[in-house]
Design goal:
Layout (H helix, E strand, L loop, with lengths): L4 E10 L4 E3 H5 L6 H8 L3 E3 L7 H16 L8 E5 L10 H9 L5 E5 L5 H14 L5 E9 L9 H4 L4 E11 L5 E8 L7 E2 L11 H5 L6 E2 L1 H22 L9 E4 L4 H11 L10 H4 L6 H11 L8 E8 L3 E8 L1
Parallel strand pairs: 4-5, 4-6, 11-12
Antiparallel strand pairs: 1-7, 2-3, 6-7, 8-13, 9-10, 12-13
Helix pairs in contact: 3-4, 8-9
This protein binds acetyl coenzyme *A.
Length: 328
């Protein structure tokens, strides 16, 4: 039995200003707007400039969420950042966010679950607020995937974009807003989606740079198949945990990697397309940032009414996957 509930007090998002369209990509890699649009649904993505790190955009998203929550950085007792594009191996990106916000009362750490990172974050925050450990938590999904993209590889470079989303969650005596969270992983799929260079397995050398091991590697076709199965399964597992049915959910917010993946999941689960939020045409795949940026946009566009149940679902490198049902 939980001691407390979790209240969602605010959300915010921020994407870097510069936009790279499919037409721009046609100029330096062998691809076409037609191929990218029909295979993925993506039309453009936002790209950070050289000097901008993940924490820089995370801080802007966090300030917006704090403003909506009517809180100051000093009210926070924890900052958690989900990212695969940390500013550095250490300090954590959460520590850079803490410094940038001046959130001196907050503990700070990162979580590594690739595109499922925000869902993993919700499961951590749910446990630690409900058991009384934290009162006010800033949870962020933020990425500058452009920094780990091989801009000569058409198989991957058309897919990704940069962006950040933030959520403020607080302890409450009311029923919890994080109704259920389910997460899963299977490390045996490690080679299908990874960034092999720069860690302790392949420390940085001239050879790792020459071989582009510091760029994301992906077997797209294989990832596609497992993504559809695992995300469909995760949607059902989170519903079962909460004793809910698909029909109870007002809006589904899936990981924004590929329109065809989203359509395949909706078809499998018999979810009408108007109940699925899609913004990948504007941003591409922003990994851990996708679901929280989409939730923030859905709220601002009036797609979510107070009291609505929404379900987020994600899948990423690891493989990892997860789904969360929230009452807004
Ligand atoms: N432009 C033109 N042609 C291309 C491009 C491109 N950008 N990319 C690949 N092609 C070519 C391939 O070389 C191939 O040519 P070939 O038949 O002569 O070898 C052809 O197009 C077909 O390639 P496929 O891989 O069969 O294309 P597919 O329909 O599978 O689409 C895609 C590829 C979009 C990558 C798809 O597999 C996909 O979305 N996979 C899932 C990726 C994903 O979701 N990853 C993220 C999940 S985890 C995370 O978010 C990090």
């Amino acid at each position: 039995m939980s001691n407390y509930g979790v209240a969602i007090r605010g959300t915010g998002s921020h994407m870097p200003e510069k936009i790279l369209t499919n037409a721009d990509l046609e100029k330096f890699v062998q691809t076409t707007d037609e191929w990218i649009t029909t295979r993925t649904g993506i039309k453009q993505r936002h790209i950070a400039d050289y000097a901008t790190a993940t924490s820089d955009i995370a801080i802007i998203a966090a300030r917006k969420a704090l403003t909506e929550a009517n809180m100051t950085p000093l009210d926070l007792d924890a900052i958690i950042v989900a990212t695969v594009t940390a500013d550095m191996a250490f300090p954590s990106t959460a520590c850079f966010v803490q410094k940038g916000l001046g959130a001196r009362n907050a503990t700070a750490f990162d979580i590594s679950a690739a595109c499922s990172g925000f869902i993993y974050g919700l499961s951590i925050v749910k446990a630690l607020i409900e058991n009384g450990t934290y009162k006010n938590v800033l949870l962020i999904g933020a990425e500058t995937l452009s920094k780990i993209t091989d801009w000569t590889d058409r198989n991957t470079c058309v897919l990704f974009g940069d962006g950040a989303g933030a959520m403020i969650l607080s302890q409450t005596n009311q029923p919890t807003s994080i109704v259920s969270v389910y997460t899963g992983a299977d490390g045996s799929y490690d080679t299908l989606l990874q960034l092999p260079g720069g860690g302790s397995r392949n420390p940085a050398t001239h050879a790792t740079i020459d071989n582009k091991l510091h760029c994301l590697k992906m077997e797209g076709k294989e990832v596609f198949k497992v993504a559809v199965t695992k995300m469909s399964d995760a949607v059902n597992k989170a519903l079962d945990q909460a004793n809910l049915k698909c029909d109870d959910i007002a809006l589904f917010i899936p990981h924004q990697a590929n329109l065809r993946i989203i359509e395949a999941i909706a078809k499998r689960l018999n979810i009408p397309v108007e109940k699925v939020f899609i913004n990948l045409q504007k941003y591409g795949n922003m990994s851990s940032a996708t679901v929280i940026v989409a939730l923030d946009e859905a709220r601002r566009e009036g797609r979510i009414k107070p009291g609505d149940l929404i379900e987020m679902v994600a899948f990423g490198g690891g493989f990892t996957w997860g789904a969360a049902i929230l009452r807004l």
